[in-house]
Design goal:
Gyrase A, domain 2; five-stranded parallel β-sheet; binds arginine; 3 domains; Rossmann fold; Isoleucyl-tRNA Synthetase, Domain 1; alpha/beta
């Protein structure tokens, strides 16, 4: 049940030429209960209806036909304030949540459509740092949200495994490195070699030429260069996989930029045919002056491809392979221009699906105010961050509940949850200043707070059933639903009603999160729901003797548990039942 949708359909009949979808989009939840439960700001309709807002509101209030979910409607200052008939509303909602259970909030809008999500995409031979965490966590949440809305989703990891830096690394490896050291210290050693190369090259510029030569060999398929390069990839993937395992992230396709190397020639060919390519000091570019952008360099002087070229080739390959409706790229906003440029190039090539390429940018992470720089070794490694978060959770558990069963597993679920949630807790476009203190803070508006609240609901339901897991899920939920049909009128106190209203908002929050590519809409919703549920828990005794009241409240608890668990899973957190 979407309460706004229902009201909108009901109201649409009263307003000439305004459809219910427009109305549903205008309806708001007023900040305080005196202003009703849902309200329509009529000034947004006055232009189209050529009437003053208060006139529209008054007419609607007068002529509003009766509806089982509506108690009354009032016109106040150009708003139509609708008060819900709470018993009917509660009964319908609880029934819906308990019967749809782990599908509550889902939809089928995406059926038959495919979304490709290009996310995470770290660079080989460099540590997986917290900048890539953002792409991983946001992309993973979007993938889950789109799947929940019925889309077929393909998660793609576009590894950065190509570019001149590999020439530098090969050169550094042969000069100062060894197979044993790389085997032993992995990316750490590769980073040391990379940093050393830059230090040395400052003193000895000829090194840059040597590196360029190695990259050229790699491009030509030279056996020695390729073998060393493949070793870098193996070592890196081994470490990345550890992080992905901890985060619970999986990809449908892992293809490095190198995969598209032999596909760039066709891009260049097409550009040439369309006379879009221009020679400029030996390089080949596509001019974008008409679109207020600097030219996109597609081919370097030495004939090698660029990041742009490989992205264009990859998009064409993906269109042919997956026939996507949208292909989404999750990177930090420093790459805005890059995406705008090559999206335009695709469009100019005549691919009308160019408009279905979407860049989802996010804010940058700085280290207590200082920009991170891999070359300088100034990075926070994700591995460290996750491990510290898990350790800290384990310490808290040891202090509070040392007897807990499976505490290592719970520490992992909660520690990792804290890191993911903190990344998703504000608008993605906001810059993040990383501090250890904040990253390891579990109080207030954090993932552990929501997970803990979820576990609290599970625990009440366990106690109510007397035995293990009784009343959670399956047949017991349906029983609770049956009882709630009778007792919904008992959930008429302010706090229960607040919780109910929030539960009803979940489906539209998921839709908004999808439409705006903004998982933080779900995480902020979860904080609000957790806060009001904790108020309910504090104010309303649940396991009371009155059997009717008890089952009504238990039905509310179960509804909260279901919604919270669905929301947590959508943003990539696990849902331990005991903490
Ligand atoms: N490897 C790139 C980086 O770390 C991100 C790649 C994003 N995906 C893409 N198709 N360009 O900045």
């Amino acid at each position: 049940m979407n309460i706004k949708q229902q009201l909108a359909e009901h109201l649409a009949g009263q307003l000439d030429g305004i459809d219910s979808d427009t109305l549903a989009g205008l309806l708001e939840y007023p900040p305080n209960p005196e202003m009703g439960d849902v309200s329509l700001p009529c000034f947004k309709l006055s232009k189209q209806l050529r009437q003053a807002p208060n006139k529209i509101a008054e007419q609607l209030a007068e002529r509003m036909p009766s509806h089982p979910l509506v108690l009354k409607a009032q016109a106040v200052n150009g708003y139509l304030n609708v008060f819900l008939e709470f018993t009917a509303f509660t009964r319908e909602l609880v029934q819906e949540i308990l019967t749809t259970a782990d599908r509550y909030g889902s939809s089928t809008v995406g059926e038959g459509k495919t979304i490709v999500v290009d996310y995470s995409s770290p660079n080989i031979a460099k540590p997986f740092h917290i900048g890539h965490l953002r792409s991983t966590v946001i992309g993973n949440a979007l993938l889950r949200i789109f799947s929940y809305m019925g889309y077929k989703c393909v998660g793609v990891n576009h590894l950065g495994d190509w570019g001149t830096q590999f020439g530098k690394l090969i050169s550094a490896y042969l000069r100062w490195g060894s197979e044993e050291a790389v085997r032993q210290d992995g990316i750490e050693e590769l980073l040391r070699l990379y940093v050393k190369f830059h230090d040395e090259a400052e003193r000895e510029p000829a090194l840059e030429d040597e590196a360029r030569a190695w990259f050229a060999k790699l491009e030509q398929g030279n056996e020695q260069a390729s073998q060393i390069w493949r070793e870098f990839i193996d070592i890196s993937l081994k470490e990345f996989d550890r992080v992905y395992d901890l985060l619970g992230v999986q990809f449908d396709s892992i293809r490095g930029e190198s995969f598209y190397n032999d596909k760039t020639a066709s891009v260049i060919e097409q550009l040439r045919e369309k006379q879009l390519l221009e020679e400029d000091e030996g390089a080949h570019i596509v001019r974008l002056d008409a679109y207020d952008m600097p030219p996109a360099i597609m081919l370097k002087k030495d004939g090698s491809s660029l990041y742009h070229t490989r992205d264009a080739a990859a998009a064409i390959y993906r269109k042919n392979t997956y026939d996507f409706d949208k292909c989404i790229y999750v990177t930090d906003y420093a790459q805005n221009l890059h995406f705008q440029q090559w999206f335009k190039v695709i469009e100019l090539m005549g691919y009308e699906w160019g408009s279905n390429l979407v860049h989802v940018p996010f804010g940058r992470v700085s280290l207590e105010g200082v920009r991170m720089a891999t070359r300088k070794g100034n990075v926070i490694k994700l591995d460290d961050l996750l491990r510290q978060a898990i350790e800290k959770t384990l310490e808290i558990i040891e202090a509070k509940n040392p007897q807990m069963e499976g505490k290592e597993e719970v520490a992992r679920q909660v520690g990792v949850g804290a890191v993911i949630f903190s990344d998703l807790s504000s608008n993605r476009i906001k810059d993040i200043v990383f501090t250890w203190e904040e990253a390891l803070n579990f109080d207030g508006e954090t993932g552990p707070y929501v997970q803990y609240t979820h576990a609290r609901a599970c625990s009440v339901l366990r106690k109510a059933g007397g035995g293990e897991r009784l009343a959670i899920g399956g047949a017991n939920a349906a029983d609770a639903a049956g009882t709630a049909t009778v007792a919904a009128e008992l959930l008429n106190d302010d706090v229960s009603q607040l919780v109910m209203k929030q539960l009803a908002m979940f489906p539209e929050k998921v839709t908004q999160a999808m439409e705006k590519y903004e998982p933080s809409i779900v995480s902020r919703y979860l904080i609000d729901l957790a806060q009001s549920f904790n108020r309910f828990y504090h104010d309303c005794p649940i396991l009371v003797d009155d059997a009717k009241l008890r089952s009504a409240r238990l039905a509310l608890v179960e509804s909260v548990r279901i919604t919270m668990s669905n929301g947590l899973r959508l943003i990539g957190l696990e849902t331990p039942e005991r903490i």
